[in-house]
């Protein structure tokens, strides 16, 4: 199973309509994606680990947070019109989350409303599909997932290179010490030359005196 999750992209599909859920699930699986389907925005957030299970609310799904942490979602595709939390509300929640904001979100709707489409795109949605969703629409998802994966890899690299600034600092300190030592050496040489220059002058009168005598 580990091999499958590594080789496949995982898509979370959100739609309150059973028929639409089955359709999008079939299209995604045809494109070799791993699919998880839920019927509401709140259940999507629960699956993503943004909400804890509330035993007093029977409508809240009992998904373990530990399981959520192990499941990587590469893209979320959600219906716009849903009771309770709309697809737009779900989009905002995801983009407000520091841990989830890099996950691409695609909105689906059976209504072609330009203001609704532009509002979703401005909020951070990657695409806005009109229902019924076609295989050609699903084929447009992969570039968004690839781009998100590259972003994640770039964010991991600075963490790996975090030791480099310390190495640079130590190198700079060594260079400064070497420069100080080099500066001290000429000063020492000057002192020696001065002492050597003075000592002959001091001894000369003595020797000259001896020769005269």
From TrEMBL:
One example of a Gene Ontology biological process annotation: cytokinin-activated signaling pathway
Keywords linked to the UniProt accession: Cytokinin signaling pathway, Phosphoprotein, Transcription, Transcription regulation, Two-component regulatory system
Electron transport is among the record's keywords: no
Keyword Transcription: yes
Signal peptide interval: none
Alphabetical list of InterPro entries matching this protein: ARR-like (IPR045279), CheY-like_superfamily (IPR011006), Sig_transdc_resp-reg_receiver (IPR001789)
Feature: compositional bias, Basic and acidic residues: 192-204
Domain Response regulatory: 10-146
Annotated segments matching region Disordered: 144-213
Pfam family, one: Response_reg
Modification 4-aspartylphosphate, positions: 79
Described purpose of this protein according to its UniProt entry: Functions as a response regulator involved in His-to-Asp phosphorelay signal transduction system. Phosphorylation of the Asp residue in the receiver domain activates the ability of the protein to promote the transcription of target genes. Type-A response regulators seem to act as negative regulators of the cytokinin signaling.
PANTHER family assigned: TWO-COMPONENT RESPONSE REGULATOR (PTHR43874), TWO-COMPONENT RESPONSE REGULATOR ARR9 (PTHR43874:SF167)
Protein family according to the UniProt entry: Belongs to the ARR family. Type-A subfamily.
Name this polypeptide is given: Response regulatory domain-containing protein
Organism: Liquidambar formosana
């Amino acid at each position: 199973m580990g091999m499958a999750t590594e080789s496949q992209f995982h898509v979370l599909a959100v739609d309150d309509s059973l028929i639409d859920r089955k359709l999008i699930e079939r299209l995604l699986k045809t494109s070799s994606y791993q699919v998880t389907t839920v019927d509401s925005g709140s259940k999507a957030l629960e699956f993503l680990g943004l909400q804890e299970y509330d035993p007093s609310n029977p409508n809240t799904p009992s998904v373990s947070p530990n399981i959520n942490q192990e499941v990587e979602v590469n893209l979320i595709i959600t219906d716009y019109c849903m009771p309770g939390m709309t697809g737009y509300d779900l989009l905002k929640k995801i983009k407000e989350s520091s841990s989830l904001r890099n996950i691409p979100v695609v909105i689906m709707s059976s209504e072609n409303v330009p203001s609704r489409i532009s509002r979703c795109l401005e909020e951070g949605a990657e695409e806005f599909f009109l229902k019924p969703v076609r295989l050609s629409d699903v084929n447009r998802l992969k570039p968004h997932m690839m781009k998100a994966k590259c972003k994640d890899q770039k964010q991991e690299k600075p963490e790996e290179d975090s030791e480099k600034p310390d190495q640079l600092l130590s190198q700079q300190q060594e260079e400064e010490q070497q420069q100080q030592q080099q500066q001290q050496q000429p000063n020492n040489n000057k002192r020696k030359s001065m002492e050597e220059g003075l000592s002959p002058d001091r001894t000369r009168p003595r020797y000259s005196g001896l020769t005269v005598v």
